[in-house]
Write a structure and sequence with these properties.
The protein is α/β, with parallel strands linked by helices. The protein contains 17 helices and 17 strands. The protein has three domains: 78 residues, Winged helix-like DNA-binding domain superfamily/Winged helix DNA-binding domain (Arc Repressor Mutant, subunit A, Orthogonal Bundle), CATH 1.10.10; 109 residues, Aspartate Aminotransferase, domain 1 (Alpha-Beta Complex), CATH 3.90.1150; 214 residues, Aspartate Aminotransferase, domain 2. 41% of the residues lie in helices and 14% in strands. It has a seven-stranded mixed sheet, with helices on both faces. The chain has a four-stranded antiparallel sheet with strand order 13-14-17-16, covered by helices on one side. Strand 13 and strand 14 form a beta hairpin. Helix 8 crosses helix 13 and helix 15 runs parallel beside helix 17. The termini are far apart.
Length: 467
């Protein structure tokens, strides 16, 4: 084992325990230290390397926790056999695919992603963060400290048509909803600002507006999203400051806004000095059209997160302002919460920078397509709006069903879904429709059973229509 130590070990900068751990780790990886080899006792190795026994003990503990070493009471510390990838994969997914004792209970409220390896990656990143330099855990966050994280986000978003983008344009947020609130704080002025949304839209728009004491007005929409004529009609009567849209994946209908419609919205927004806030949180596939930030660089704001591509658990999102408003958006974040916790920012940097992560995201997307396919096979005979890379479908109910009644009937079958009422404004009208989200936490067989139970309900409406 004496041959594995570099001559400059003691003169190398950095914590000695990490240098010892890294040296042993590399020796195990290149087979210089083979499985079963016994390592020197702590005090003996410390004497050889002229470091403290505590330093060696800490390095051994790190490698034992990683599964590279195993300590046997009374015998010593040995190079451990490699973990079984199959067993490790099963273990990492136990919680993710855990099913309740009642196999009929399936939540279709919000999309739930399958674990396609992101749990293992996150654990590895957490392990690396845990051994980071102590400054990461003992200082207030600073803008310069977040630069590597912001650059990782720029590279993560590099395939999106967002217009010119540097790390200085990125503001890190606690998920997409926090990003939306942050943009509202930056844009909205006055005692009673006005915000426009689509008639059926993400409820978070309304809630963020209420926090800012804004009046939220719903605009008529069609199969391509917000109706430009209806929007201009309202703008003539109000002094709205912003409009919220989801052009790539409209939530809840799944509609996509084509380029010509986006250009119409931009033209109207320029005439009335309206800011455009694009919520891109539900897109899993490639962007089909340029973003509003690219089409209208002076007034396009972009909000996104990793919640629908990797995991919602970390609560990490990104807000991007028009270039001339980047300082204003940064100021809103700094005044509000200083920034993400530095260990979380470093964890996210490691995750987004890992070359395996993009493949994991592609695998998640591919797996979610399987759930969409099962849904379409079961419910495709009805009026169903869907797309392969959208993690939910929009079901217009057949004659005999009201949305509220169908939701209650589905819940009696153990299936929870969202009625159109949940996406309408308080004084708005909702169609007889429901949103069904994909649940990658359950097996495809169990998910298919839930879809077949929904089909049976749709085929057998009640004799009396209830509300």
């Amino acid at each position: 084992m004496d041959t594995i130590w570099p001559e400059m070990l003691l003169k190398t900068k950095g914590p000695k325990y990490t240098l010892v751990a890294d040296t042993i780790r590399k020796a195990i990886e290149n087979k210089t230290l083979e499985v079963g080899v016994k390592l020197p006792p702590v005090r003996e190795l410390a004497y050889r390397l002229q470091i403290t026994p505590g330093t060696v003990a800490r390095a051994y503990t790190i490698l034992t926790d990683e599964g590279l070493l195993q300590a046997e009471v009374g015998r010593g510390t040995f190079v451990a056999p490699p973990k079984s990838p199959i067993l490790d994969d099963v273990w990492s997914r136990q919680l993710h695919l855990a099913e309740t004792s009642d196999g009929r209970q399936v939540s279709l409220f919000s999309p739930r992603l399958p674990d396609m390896g992101q749990v293992k990656l996150i654990r590895e990143c957490m392990e690396k963060v845990s051994h980071a330099d102590p400054w990461l855990f003992m200082n207030y966050p600073t803008r310069d400290a977040y630069a590597p994280m912001r650059q990782a986000v720029v590279e993560w978003l590099s395939d999106l048509p967002l217009g010119p983008l540097t790390h200085d344009d990125i503001v890190l947020t606690h998920g997409g909803q926090n990003g939306l609130c942050l943009v509202f704080q930056t844009i909205l002025q006055g005692a009673k600002p006005v915000v426009l949304v689509e008639d059926l839209s993400y409820a978070g728009f309304r809630r963020a507006g209420e926090l800012m004491r804004a009046e939220v007005i719903g605009i008529k929409m069609d199969q391509w999203g917000i109706d430009p004529d209806a929007m201009e009609h309202v703008l003539r009567q109000t002094k709205a400051q912003a409009v919220c849209v989801s052009p790539e994946v409209q939530n809840p209908t799944g509609a996509h806004t084509p380029l010509e419609r986006r250009k119409e919205i931009v033209e109207i927004a320029r005439r009335y000095d309206l800011q455009i806030i694009e919520d891109d949180c539900y897109r899993m596939g490639d962007a089909q059209e340029p973003s509003f930030r690219a089409l209208a660089p002076e007034r396009g704001w972009h909000v996104s997160s990793i919640s629908k591509t990797l995991t919602p658990a970390l609560r990490v999102g990104f807000a991007i302002a028009p270039r001339e408003r980047s300082v204003d958006l940064r100021r809103s974040a700094e005044y509000g919460y200083f920034g993400l916790a530095q260990p979380l920012a470093e964890l996210t940097r490691l995750l987004l920078s890992d070359p395996r992560t993009r493949q994991v995201a592609r695998d998640v997307r591919k797996r979610m397509r399987d759930y969409v396919r099962v849904t379409v096979n079961a419910l495709g005979g009805f009026d169903l709006n869907w797309a392969p890379d959208v993690p939910f479908v929009w079901l217009s109910l057949p004659s005999g069903w009201r949305a509220a009644a169908f939701s209650r009937a589905a819940e009696r079958e153990g299936i929870q879904l969202r009625s159109a009422d949940e996406f309408a404004l308080r004084d708005g009208r909702a169609p007889n429709a429901v949103r069904i989200a994909m649940n990658g936490h359950v097996s495809l067989d169990r998910f298919e059973d839930a879809m077949l139970r929904l089909r049976a309900l749709l085929d057998n409406p009640p004799e009396q229509i209830s509300v």
